[in-house]
């Protein structure tokens, strides 16, 4: 069974290699490229505009979150900025790590 299958396949592939190429259906119909480009341009803005809409909404949400975060933390940051912090003047962290006293 296997030998018969192998010989049949060999005959078919040999016949396919020797057959002349069929060039009758290779040419595209007239106006095909124009129709394809017109359809591509017609459908593309719908997807792009939907993506653009969600992008602008995400940008607005991120900006709102950033503004609320700054407003919520501005009081404590300004309160600590007014106080004198002598811990950095007394101990230099780089000198402690490198032992450059």
Poorly predicted residue ranges: none
Q: Rg to the nearest angstrom? A: 37 Å
Q: What is the number of helices?
A: 4
Helix content: over 70%
Please characterize this protein's 3D structure.
- With 101 residues, this protein is mainly alpha-helical.
- It has helices at 2-18, 32-82, 87-90, 93-98.
- It has a domain at 41-74.
- The protein is elongated, with a radius of gyration of 37 Å.
- It starts with a helix and ends with a helix.
- Helices cover 77% and strands 0% of the residues.
- The protein contains four helices and no strands.
Helix and strand layout, with pairings?
Elements: H1 2-18, H2 32-82, H3 87-90, H4 93-98
Using brief descriptors, characterize the structure shown.
single chain; 101 residues; mainly alpha; 4 helices
What would a concise description of this structure say?
By secondary structure, this protein is mainly alpha-helical.
């Amino acid at each position: 069974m296997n030998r018969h299958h192998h010989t049949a396949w060999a005959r078919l592939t040999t016949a396919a290699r020797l057959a002349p190429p069929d060039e009758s259906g290779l040419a595209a119909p007239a106006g095909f490229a124009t129709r394809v480009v017109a359809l591509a341009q017609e459908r593309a803005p719908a997807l792009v505009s939907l993506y653009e809409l969600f992008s602008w909404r995400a940008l607005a949400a991120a900006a709102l979150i950033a503004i609320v975060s700054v407003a919520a933390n501005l009081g404590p940051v300004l309160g600590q900025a007014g106080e004198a912090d002598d811990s950095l003047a007394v101990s230099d962290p780089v000198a402690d790590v490198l032992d450059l006293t």
